[in-house]
Write a structure and sequence with these properties.
The model has no long low-confidence stretch (mean pLDDT 97). The chain is of the alpha/beta class. Strand 7, helix 5 and strand 8 form a beta-alpha-beta unit. 31% of the residues lie in helices and 34% in strands. It has one domain: Rossmann fold (3-Layer(aba) Sandwich), CATH 3.40.50.2020. The structure holds adenosine monophosphate. The site of adenosine monophosphate (AMP) has 17 residues, from strand 2, strand 7 and helix 5.
Length: 173
């Protein structure tokens, strides 16, 4: 399935989770075997020239795509979780949202110095979440070699915020 067809499986939900936000619902894409398969194949293809040991996937929809990619590309999977979910020694990073702050965490032993890591999520909007994940990887001595998203919302300043890292995204709005 090509990109144009894939786009038909992303559903717009206006005013969710709050007024003014158009939520990009990827459950129809995951529900359709061909769409899910094609999305993973196309995302994997975008990573073919990137050197990496691990995919650091972001809670929660990032886990779904990150796990499928890690399996397909035979890499390890790291979970970047919302605060309070990880049981072992961890690194926490707080970051700004439009209103208030949020926190993500990674296990401190998930990355060794020099490991090459790709950050993966379903969608990049302002880039705040991804930037926080980059900061944790760097703090642990890893190298972020790329970021991989199913969807990129353009014009929200994410690429400026993230800076000089390769950003791969399949569907752009
Ligand atoms: P950001 O940190 O602004 O790049 O937001 C990215 C995170 O929030 C990802 O984990 C997305 O799943 C989620 N997100 C932000 N905006 C949307 C949206 N319009 N539709 C669906 N998910 C979103």
């Amino acid at each position: 399935m090509g990109l144009e067809d894939l786009k038909k499986y992303v559903r717009d939900i206006p005013d969710f989770p709050k007024e003014g936000i158009v939520f990009k619902d990827v459950t129809p894409l995951l529900h359709n075997n061909e769409a899910f398969h094609s999305a993973i194949d196309l995302m994997a293809d975008q990573l073919k020239d990137i050197k990496f040991d691990y995919i650091a996937s972001i809670d929660a929809r990032g886990f779904i795509l990150g796990a499928a990619l890690a399996y397909k590309l035979n890499k390890g999977l790291i979970l970047v979780r919302k605060k309070g979910k990880l049981p072992y020694k961890k690194i926490t990073k707080d970051y700004e949202l439009e209103y208030g702050t949020n926190s993500i965490e990674m296990h401190a032993d998930s990355i060794k110095k020099g490991d090459n890591v790709i950050i993966c999520d379903d969608l990049m909007a302002t880039g705040g979440t991804s930037k926080a994940a980059i900061d944790i990887v760097n703090e642990l001595g890893g190298n972020v070699t790329a970021l991989s998203f199913l969807i990129e919302l353009e014009g929200l300043g994410a690429r400026e915020k993230i800076g000089n890292y390769p950003i791969k995204s399949l569907i752009k709005y």
